[in-house]
Amino acid sequence: MTHFIDFEADIGTSIDDTSFDLVIVGGGAAGLTIVREMSGLGLKILLLESGGIEETSRHEALNEVEALGSLEGAHLQQARQESHAYQLKFWNSETQKFGVRCRVLGGSTTAWAGKVAPFDSADFAQRGWIPHSGWPIGSAAIAPYINRAAERLDLGPIITDREFWVASKLKEPSEVSRMQYLSSFFWQFARSRHNMTDVMRFGPDFRTEEHKDVTLLFNATACAVKTDVDGVTGVEITSSLSGQRRCIIKSTHVTLAAGAIENARLLLISKDGAGRALGNAHDVVGRYLTDHPSMSLGSFSPDGQERAATLLGFFALQKNYRAFMYSHGFALRPEIQQDKSLPNMAVYTNIRISENDPLVALKRLAKKQSQHPVSDIVAVLKSSGLVLSSVGRKILGNPKLPYRLRRMIADAAVLISANFVARDYAAKGTGRKIDHITLDVICEQPPLPENRVTLSDRCDRLGLPLARVAWEPGDFLKRSVLTFAQLLEQDLRAADIRGFTLWPEIAAGDMSKVILHDMAHTAGTTRMGRDPATSVVDDTCQVHGVRGLYVAGASVFPTSGHANPTMVIIALAIRLADHLKSRLAAKRLATLEMPVRTNAAGSLVLVTGATGNLGTEIVEKLIEQGYRVRGQFHRKVPSDPRVEWTKADFADPDLPDEALDKLVEGAKAVIHLAASLPGRPHIHTTNVTNLERLAQACVREGVRYFGQASSMVVYGSPASRLVSEKAPLIDVNLPIEKQYFAATEMREYARSKREGEDILAKYADKMHVDLYRIALVQKSGYLEESLTWSRKKRFFVLYRNSHYISTSNAAKAIAHLLRVSSESAQTTGVEAFNVADTNSLTYKDVYLRAGHKLAVHLPLLLDILKCLAIGKSFRKRYPMGFFRLDNSKLRSTGFVLDRDN
């Protein structure tokens, strides 16, 4: 559903006459996260990506920067080349004398190591010894978004300190407990959901997803942000390769997510009506440039390498049948930072894999390039386990195998030896024998205004001024590194961690030999703050003085601690997305404040979840029948001008009674569709707690009819193939697993739906309650789409969920039941109806009609085994894909299915 357009090649596609609700500049971690958070909301979103779907050298040329000062030094650039080039296809230190950027969908996650961690709480505070420190928001304000970022990154529990040892049920190493200045710090690794031998790559992952109402325009370089007196009006773009195509994209909300260098560069290029750079009234744009300065402090002797690799290596933590990888290092204690006036710093192992490795030897033998075949053969035979693991790597990389099976194998490997897996990744499967280990420091850089991005007099091939970068680590940081090195050496000696030796120049305290290079963690050029004199964006990430213009990514960081920035980048992107949802929803609602009264004299019906697929259809049916409609929405922004719209979140445990009363005020009937689906958080709050509170509000406000969207899951795994409303329901007072042979999240969903039915029965003496036990609701043509599925998907999914009802028929049935109730003399009581098409087609029917032959499906056997594993029973029970709801009671009310839908 995501619409991909190549701005360079698709010359027949015109988008300059389209206005978008939101334009995002940059398809890296921040930009793609915002898109993911906001897709499916009913908003038109455009993502601009200067690069292509794949990296090319022509795109890389647009990353050129002009460097000043020590960035021109040969030793520094050599250190940068050695640190970064090995994991990048096209990057080189000549083009990018500062920074590591990949101009491609996915941005720098194309080449990152997947290493993430949250910031320490002290990183957000104002510290007297760190100039210009302090965030306008604290760690508590960002904590919920850190949790959501962890979900996006597929991480385990967020633990960065010594509590990891408790959580992983491992004994804390005695050496660590003896350290005085440093303490354990744990990073995690975001592993790919698709390639089990790789870290998460945002670009390839995004291409496998479907995002409604999202257009991705690649090969489209932003030239300038356009504004007027009211705020942002759009973005001017040009085609990235030729520069021959140009247009202006219209939008009143634009988010820059192109990285710290490009965000500042674009603001400086863009001018307001007075000719000033946007957001730069106080000459702050581009200033306070930071990175994570880094260098090697020393190495371990050969006899100390294995112990160091074990102690400061990788560890596994298991939760919810998943295994997660954590990397162990040492970080400076907060009290030591304060006592010695040091920035936040940490040290980690840098392990280099030897060329003298069994797998390398095997490759030499296979290619007949071995100069010492006997010794190579011996090396291979001695390490047959390592050789066999290379076969396992190929198995994990085979997309034809089911995802869950590959994930299970990968998790098992992590649990058996996280270090083994990490070394395999570092060597890209070519070997795991250690050549040498160094300890590298990663530093917080104090934000200084003289470190900055400005515009060069030179231009790139598109005619845009190059970014000019001035970046110096500074003497304060160099002295801090030498102090840190001394503290590290003392702690390692006290802890009896043997074999480590500082480099001679570091041990001698020679500040002239401290060569710190950037870690590709560029930040700070559009920093966040409340004072426009010292910041570029406010605490919502909107540019000071430019309405509708926002910035995402590390460029808004006031300071950046020592932790790798991606987790906080994503957390802030999610926070910004939430803010944009509210802003854009309010803007849309302002245009819908006065509904078009097509049925001014009709009774008012409240429909919750009115912007969903079923809700939209029900609203249409009710308006056709002469009702006035009030629609509740939470996530998806409404657009129907005939409806009176109200925003409310039933997942909110603090949803005020007043809001519920206002929601139902004046309504004669309520059709409640809003619910949390299986596996979603707050399912009990939404489906049980706030359902009862809504029912109580209905009683207070005199609502006469309450229709509840229940589900066929309330029957669990029934004993009969055809299920009527009189069939036994799940008993929530008994073990659910004995009644419903399904995954845990489905059982919890079924429990909530059954509890919801029982709750509404308590209010049936005050109003009439209809319970809609609905089969799987799908749009027309749902089954026919399965004809295009892959063989694997057909094999594992085909027989499931075959009992369905079209969205149109489900809506028609619910509107019909409301009318029947309004015409009835019975004003109270509770009735349950199976809302289903008892004779709906199955996958088998569709496939046979299309001339396909159906094979036996292994998952049927798996369902039988599931009954035994979950219910500990061989009792005859029907899985959801095999039983059918009897709709006789619904038909007895006069309802007729529309066979065209």
UniProtKB/TrEMBL annotation:
<dbReference type="Pfam" id="PF01370">
    <property type="entry name" value="Epimerase"/>
</dbReference>
<dbReference type="InterPro" id="IPR001509">
    <property type="entry name" value="Epimerase_deHydtase"/>
</dbReference>
<dbReference type="InterPro" id="IPR036188">
    <property type="entry name" value="FAD/NAD-bd_sf"/>
</dbReference>
<dbReference type="GO" id="GO:0008802">
    <property type="term" value="F:betaine-aldehyde dehydrogenase (NAD+) activity"/>
</dbReference>
<dbReference type="InterPro" id="IPR051473">
    <property type="entry name" value="P2Ox-like"/>
</dbReference>
<comment type="similarity">
    <text>Belongs to the GMC oxidoreductase family.</text>
</comment>
<dbReference type="Pfam" id="PF05199">
    <property type="entry name" value="GMC_oxred_C"/>
</dbReference>
<feature type="domain" description="NAD-dependent epimerase/dehydratase">
    <location>
        <begin position="605"/>
        <end position="769"/>
    </location>
</feature>
<protein>
    <submittedName>
        <fullName>Oxygen-dependent choline dehydrogenase</fullName>
        <ecNumber>1.2.1.8</ecNumber>
    </submittedName>
</protein>
<keyword id="KW-0285">Flavoprotein</keyword>
<keyword id="KW-0274">FAD</keyword>
<feature type="domain" description="Glucose-methanol-choline oxidoreductase C-terminal">
    <location>
        <begin position="447"/>
        <end position="573"/>
    </location>
</feature>
<keyword id="KW-0560">Oxidoreductase</keyword>
<dbReference type="GO" id="GO:0016614">
    <property type="term" value="F:oxidoreductase activity, acting on CH-OH group of donors"/>
</dbReference>
<dbReference type="InterPro" id="IPR036291">
    <property type="entry name" value="NAD(P)-bd_dom_sf"/>
</dbReference>
<dbReference type="InterPro" id="IPR007867">
    <property type="entry name" value="GMC_OxRtase_C"/>
</dbReference>
